[in-house]
Amino acid sequence: MKLKQWIAVLLAVVALLVPLTACSSSNTDTAAANEDTETQTAGDNAAAESDDETTEADDAADDAATEIKWSITIPGASGSLCNSPTYLAYELGYFAEEGIDAELITADFETKKVGLNNGTISTVNGDFQYFQSIEAGVGMTIVGGLHQGCIKLNVLAESDIETGADLEGKTIAVDEIGGSPYQVTVLWLAQYGLSVDDVNIVAYNDSSLEIEALKSGQVDVAAVWDPIATISTQDGTVRTILDIGTDEPFAGHFCCFLYASTKVVEEQPKLIAAELRAYYKAQNWIYENPEEAVRIVTEKGYVSLDEEYFDIAVELVRSYSYPSTEAYENGEWDIKGDIEYYAQALYDAGFLTTDPEEFVSIAYTEIDLTLGLDD
After folding, report:
1. How far is CA 110 from CA 24, 116, 130, in A?
2. Alpha carbon distance 96, 89 (integer Å)
3. CB-hemisphere CA count at 13 Å for 193?
4. What's the farthest any 2 CA atoms get from each other in the chain?
5. Handedness of CA 369, 371, 372, 374 (dihedral sign)
6. In terms of C-beta distances under 8 Å and separation of at least 24 residues, what long-range contacts does 245-248 make, across chains too?
7. What's residue 46's pLDDT?
8. Which of 38, 122, 138, 297 has minimal Cβ neighbours within 10 Å of its Cβ?
């Protein structure tokens, strides 16, 4: 074969080998790239699995932190503005934070007493109307203070009634016999030497119905919860003759306390401590956020309130002096002192027979708020 022919063959062979070499190099690179991709994917999958495990661990921790330990019913499905700590402890999740599955129910005065006595109701927001029940042996005890002021006695603007002395022979509307407005009326009467025998007290079961009865002339006086009590005075047809937030003998004292079932205190003290912590959180939140507190309790239907009266309700909530956490920690609350104050007033009026100091010793139970925190 001639030289030129050998060169031509050699060049043809080289031409064939170059693509094969390039292909081999490309396959090697691709394999390496695929290996890198697989390694990255495996890493990503491992990281994702790790993240999933972390999320699951966090969820498990959250579930453990909010483990439900107790299921209870609390009277507080609807009612007065001053029962806001109950509504907000429920709506803001403070009961749940403490391991409590709470159901808010409607209950009248007698139902609350029966529930406290037999332990089916663990706590109740109530006034000094329960003092006589404690003396009579009903199984309940005071474990905390809630706020000041919330009830007013109203008359028509043109009425000649000015003070408690003018109530003799008059018809007075309350929401329930034995309830807080009833007890306020009774104590105010006692300041003027009068009793329930000197007046006619009728129950209407609703503050709005009381105001309607007042305006229609069916009653002379309406003992009413706020905010209805204050709202009813805005058009000038009704005026207030007693405001327990500013007038004696009520001004400057807790009007509402947290009562607990003695049976539950003895058998489940950790539950009572948890409820009390939830209430204190709610009180502090109201203290710091009165406007939002009113917004929540009205939008959720606990309190009936037209938007035009919203600002009035906010001012009322501020006036109730819900204690802050700082005030509690600084010992600014005088729960025992206020219990004795009202016990003395009831004793002087003949509604209690137990010496006021002795009454405090049987009516008040100090709860250790740390109970259950280490569980």
Report:
1. 93, 10, 10
2. 9
3. 1
4. 146
5. positive
6. 245/148, 245/149, 245/150, 245/319, 245/320, 246/149, 248/191
7. 44
8. 38
Sign of CA dihedral 310, 180, 329, 65: negative
Burial class (CB in 10 A: 0-12, 13-18, 19+), 46: exposed
Of all helices (H) and strands (E), which one includes residue 89?
Answer: helix 84-91
Q: What's the pLDDT at 58?
A: 43
Q: In 200-234, which positions are buried (b, 16+ CB within 10 angstroms) versus exposed (e)?
A: ebebbeebebbbbbbeeeebbbbbbbbbbbbbbbe
For the beta carbon of residue 350, count every other beta carbon within 10 angstroms: 9
pLDDT of residue 236: 96
What pLDDT digit, counting tens, does each position of 70-89 carry? 999 999 876 778 889 999 99
Question: What SS3 state is found at 349?
Answer: coil
**What is the reported pLDDT for 293?**
96
Residues in the chain: 375
For residue 217, give every residue at least 6 positions away whose Cβ sits within 8 Å of its Cβ, in sequence order, or none.
Answer: none
Burial class (CB in 10 A: 0-12, 13-18, 19+), 111: middle
pLDDT at position 6 is: 35
Closest C-alpha among 146, 135, 139, 103 to residue 258: 146
pLDDT at 77: 76
Q: What is the rounded distance in angstroms from the CA atom of residue 294 to the CA atom of residue 207?
A: 18
Backbone angle region of 357, left / alpha / beta, with phi > 0 → left and psi within -120 to 50 → alpha = alpha
What residues are paired with 254 via a beta bridge?
148
Contact 294, 314 (CB under 8 A): yes
Q: How far is CA 292 from CA 178, 250, 286, 296, 301, in A?
A: 32, 27, 8, 6, 14
Query: Mean pLDDT for each 10-residue chunk of the chain (375 residues)?
Result: 37 36 38 45 46 43 67 85 92 97 92 96 90 96 92 97 97 88 90 94 92 97 92 95 92 91 98 97 96 95 88 92 86 88 88 94 96 89
Tokens of 369: 């708020």
